[in-house]
Amino acid sequence: MAAVTRRPLLVLGVTVVLALAGAALALRLEPSAATDTLVNRGSQSFQDTERFKHDFGDDPVVVLVRGNLANTVLTEDLGRMLSLEGCLAGNPPKTKQGRAALAKLPPVCRELAALQPAKVVFGPATFINTAANRIIDEYASRQQRATQQADQAAAAARKLSQRRGDPPAEQDRLAKAAAQAVTAQFTQYVYQLALLYGITNVPRIDDPNFVSAIVFDSSAGKAGVPKSRFAYLFPSSNAAMITIRLKPGLSGAQRRHAIDLFRTATEQRVFKPRHGGRYVVTGVPVVAQGLADAVQTSIFVLLGAALLVMAATLALVFRTRLRLLPLGLALCAAGMTFGALSLAGGSLTMASIAVLPVLIGLAVDYAIQFQARFDEERRRAGDPRDAAAAAAAAGGPTILTAGAATAVGFLVLLLSPVPMVRGFGVLLVAGIALALLCAICAGFAALVRFGGGPPRPPRPLPFAGSPWVVDAREWIATRSWRALGFALAQPGRVLAIALVVAVAGLAADTQSKVVSDVRELVPANLRELRDVNALQDETGVSGEIDVTVRARDITDARVVAWMTRFQQGVLRAHGYSAGKRCNQAHAPPELCPALSLPDLFTATGNAQGQVRRLLDSVPTYFSQGVITADRRTANLAFGIRLMALDRQKRVVDDIQRRLNPPPGVQASVVGLPVLAAQANASLSSPWRRGLTLVAALAGVFLVLLLVRRSVRRAAIPLIPIAMASGWSSGVVFLLGLLPGPLKVELNPMSVTLGALVIAISTEFSVLLSSRYQQERDRGAGPSRAIELAYASTGAAVLASGATAIAGFAALTASDIRMLRDFGIVTVVDLTVSLLGVLLVLPAALIWAELEPRARLSALRRRGARVEAS
Q1: Can you tell me the distance from the alpha carbon of 846 to that of 221, in angstroms, rounded to the nearest whole number?
Q2: Which of these, 25, 307, 321, 807, is most buried using a 10 Å CB contact count?
Q3: Residue 312 and residue 799 in contact, taking contact as beta carbons nearer than 8 Å
Q4: How would you classify residue 646: left for phi > 0, otherwise alpha for psi between -120 and 50, otherwise beta?
Q5: What sections of 752-855 are H helices per DSSP?
């Protein structure tokens, strides 16, 4: 402290420079919805998903072509869609003509060709165009073979006629007849195919008859109904669907840029449909990215409002010089913390964003405690530097102990199986260390340099003399002292009641619902949510669950038969049957078929030779989405509806239970929906939350035991800390029973805030119990020691708690339910922790000092006198 106060301006300058540099670095942080924030990189599910991405691409981005399907595919709009699909694929041209054609397209297409973010693109127009070209190529190939066979038949007939000695004219006639017979056979075959498939002309993408024969089901009984086997391209009579699987390994910034480019491409006039259709860019990656961006934008706006509220609260409740200094120090600590996160290569997840308000609340508390100590010492010592040294010596060990115990309480989050929750804990611990450093160094430097002359009595609050303010303050003071007097007079009863309430709250917590349906957590007008709802309305699904199958030879008849049975069994178990539409309004199926290898086998049989011939004939453009080039890995895809993550977990678990591949075959369920469901199950597990709380309490106890070297002194502050978790859980459970918009439930962002209750309760309890012990060591009796502790440290605790509560209350104004409920739950946690500790800690302290029964009545009388005063 001597070094800090000797050069206060230098310390302040370094702190400000580091804070500004950290803030600048923090601006580079990007929101992330990467899979490695949900599950461990070493887990089997993550590794299986990464292998799937390498083989088949990342989770699909979907461009929904919404509008009458006949108008889309039977008009010139199909050609525009073909150009768009080529632009989205981003394949760089290899010929001079291709480069010239690319130069005529909009600039976004050249940017996509340079970035090449897509691994696979399946589009309706490319499918039809490829089908036309394949039919033409196959026709030409068969025609060439027929011509060769006709020539061979003519030569054989001529040779046979020559051996019989026929004249040349007869030889020519017989040769010509043989050739015509072969040609007639080929012509008959072509006519049969034309009648079977309705192809009456040379296949062209601009031929409505050909396109209609490919796309629409003539046996459906009404016009415009697409064939169900092509549902992954034509899901309904009002939609077509372009599927883009992104390349694996794209960074969050690259993924966001790619999605922006896809949107920009669909907005180009040259690609826009002219017959009523419109493009909608959606899919699971788009929703995840949009949600992360919306939360990031909203929380920073709300934090700006929260800082203003906290500043106003500090100005009202913290009656001292430089009363806004704690908030400034908190912002410096936050800037440094997130700057360090940027330097470490981190990103903004839902959890790391939630660190910011929690860290600011803790940092304000540390700064207020040190500043309150400085004010006390300043009244005793005239010199500010002496006061700073005395305040650091008197309050430093206690505040540092509280900070260390709080940090250990957050470190237990490292036990979580969810990486972003572990990151939440590590980032908070780093933030706590920086907050303490800022409070000790920059805080005392500012107090010594700008604290001014001798301390002045605080000015009265605005309107403090008005009758209703006086009455309110008297009412609060009277009730507060009565509550405190009751705690001192009846400590055993207070502790018993508190324990019963805490146990009831912990029991209720096991019944608390964790909301995980994205539709309930974000505003209904969020663009990404509207778009994915449109996708589900038209297709019946919004995302995809994939099953990868690996074998030495995936075309083996035994493997093919198992894949077919497995796919049909899963679909049947989740409500889908042949002929059922996935987008039906009544009782839609949970899972629907998507592009999979067994869909090709169904039409040809399962014989190994047939499968191989089929795969040889399928263009690489399509086969790469369902089977790898070495034919060792195949993909079974299932479309899944938007649903709560707990229900989604049950669907995933059922698919996994049905996996029973033949010997030598490996199968695994993969995809972002799978990882998200697993992460949510870990977050919302009541027993895991309970284990985390127990571990946090054990960690706090060990820190206190190490510092205080007394089991009793370490255990007493733990009593209200342990109980506060139950009180908070009970209140949150009751809030979940409220009707309509008043209802508050846990969500993936707020479910880990049990650690916050431990942390805040630890801070309050350690500070107050330490001050109580200091007063006892100076000779004050129990009741007097509590009175002195509450008049000094208690006032600072109340000021910091009120400031933090006011700041978090600003989050409740968010239109994003996830943030609103996060703010409400945090306010509940802080309020319950503050009031609970202030009430129960005195009872615990008095109860710990109870002597034999003979002194009990005297202690009660002493408490009664305190109540009367």
Answers
A1: 85
A2: 807
A3: no
A4: alpha
A5: 754-777, 782-789, 795-809, 817-848
> Low-confidence residues of the chain, pLDDT below 50?
458-473, 475-476, 603-606, 852-856, 858-860, 862-863, 866, 869
Helix H segments across 412-517? 419-438, 444-450, 467-489, 491-509
- Residue type at 97? Q
SS3 state of residue 609: helix
Quick one: CA dihedral 621, 622, 623, 624, positive or negative?
Answer: positive
Choose among 569, 589, 598: nearest CA to 660. 569
CB 836 within 8 A of CB 761: yes
pLDDT at 856: 46
Give pLDDT, residue 365: 86
Instruction: Decide if 824 contacts 744 (C-beta within 8 A).
Output: yes
Measured between alpha carbons, how far is 217 from 221 in angstroms, rounded to an integer?
9
Which stretches of 671-753 are DSSP H helices? 672-684, 686-708, 711-715, 718-735
With CA atoms as reference, report the closest residue to 373 among 800, 841, 868, 862.
800
Rounded distance between C-alpha atoms, residue 674 and residue 659, angstroms: 15
Q: What is the pLDDT of residue 722?
A: 83
Element (H, E) at 813: none
Give the pLDDT confidence score for residue 461 in this predicted structure. 42
Q: H helices then E strands: how many in the chain?
A: 35, 8
| CA dist list (Å): 805 to 361, 759, 834 | 8, 15, 10
Residue 839, classed as helix, strand or coil, is: helix
pLDDT tens digits, residue range 79-93? 999 999 989 988 766
Query: To which H or E segment does residue 235 belong?
Result: none
Q: Tell me if residue 577 falls in helix, strand or coil.
A: coil
Question: For residues 432 and 340, what is the distance between their CA atoms, to the nearest angstrom?
Answer: 13
**Alpha-carbon distances, residue 52 vs 289, 396, 550, 669, 835 (angstroms):** 21, 54, 11, 10, 52
The 8 Å CB, 24+ separation contacts for 2-8 are 2/385, 2/389, 4/388, 4/440, 4/441, 4/444, 4/445, 4/448, 5/384, 5/385, 5/388, 5/389, 5/444, 5/445, 5/448, 7/445, 8/444, 8/445, 8/446, 8/448, 8/449
Residues 6+ apart with CB under 8 A from 757: 724, 725, 728, 829, 832, 833
Distance CA 433, CA 863 (A): 40
Cα distances from 309 to residues 266, 306, 312, 803, in angstroms, run 43, 5, 5, 8
How far is CA 9 from each of CA 375, 435, 808, rounded to the nearest angstrom?
20, 19, 32
Please report the sign of the dihedral spanned by the C-alpha atoms of residue 144, residue 150, residue 152, residue 154: negative
Q: What are phi and psi of 26, to 5 degrees?
A: -65, -30
- CA nearest to 547, candidates 617, 636, 470: 636
* 243 Cβ contact partners less than 8 Å away, ≥ 6 residues apart: 60, 61, 62, 120, 121, 122, 123, 232, 595
The confidence score (pLDDT) of residue 784 equals 84
Helix/strand/coil for 285: helix
Regarding pTM above 0.85, the answer is no
Q: Residue 365 carries which side chain, given as an amino acid letter?
A: D
- The contacts found for 859-866 with CB under 8 angstroms, 24 or more apart, are 859/488, 859/489, 859/782, 860/489, 860/490, 862/488, 862/781, 862/783, 863/485, 863/486, 863/488, 863/489, 863/490, 863/783, 864/485, 864/489, 866/481, 866/484, 866/485, 866/488, 866/489, 866/783, 866/787
For the stretch 594-629, pLDDT in tens is 878 776 655 444 455 555 665 665 666 667 778 888
pLDDT tens-digit series, residues 159-211: 888 888 888 888 888 888 888 888 887 777 777 666 655 666 777 888 888 88
Quick one: which of 61, 56, 91 has its CA closest to 242? 61
Q: Which spans in 318-416 are helix H? A: 325-343, 350-380, 384-411
3-state secondary structure of 555: coil
Q: Among the residues of 32-117, which ranges form H helices?
A: 44-56, 69-73, 77-89, 96-104, 107-115
Give every strand in the sheet of 543-550, ordered side by side: 591-593, 633-640, 543-550, 666-670
